[in-house]
Amino acid sequence: MSEQGSSPGRPQLPIGSGLLPSAKVPIRQTVERASGTGFVAGAFHLDETYGSLESRVARYETQYAWAEDPPSRIRHFVTGVRATADAEDPDLVHVRSNLLVYRTRQEQTLRCASRATKSCLISRRSGRTAFPSSF
User: Fold this and answer.
1) What pLDDT digit, counting tens, does each position of 100-116 carry?
2) Between the CA of residue 57 and those of 51, 61, 94, what are the distances in Å?
3) Which CATH architecture has domain 71-135?
4) What is the pTM of this model?
5) Is the domain 1-65 a CATH 3.30.1300.10 member?
């Protein structure tokens, strides 16, 4: 497999374009504003790169792609979507949204709710999305 990924049928993304998929979900820490940013330095719930995302996609194309049997019941809620034009480039739009994921498993009474804020930069020209790489 090449550096860009050569699996048939998969879209190819140019290396170094700044638009390669990646995701980081930092761990929050409740602190007073004067004591820091509220994020644990260097620690993430999720820290995916292009390579790790490509590996996940390849696994989903096999017969072993399931993670739970029976599957969880999951609901995704996206709210508070805010889009702002970039001050320097009129073809770019900054987008922020709030996410809530609600999960129940089998007949368990314990429910799991996860919340996050998502930020991305969308190009009006190409429709491509870039995610901030630093938190």
Assistant:
1) 999 888 777 677 888 98
2) 10, 7, 27
3) Roll (3.10)
4) 0.46
5) no
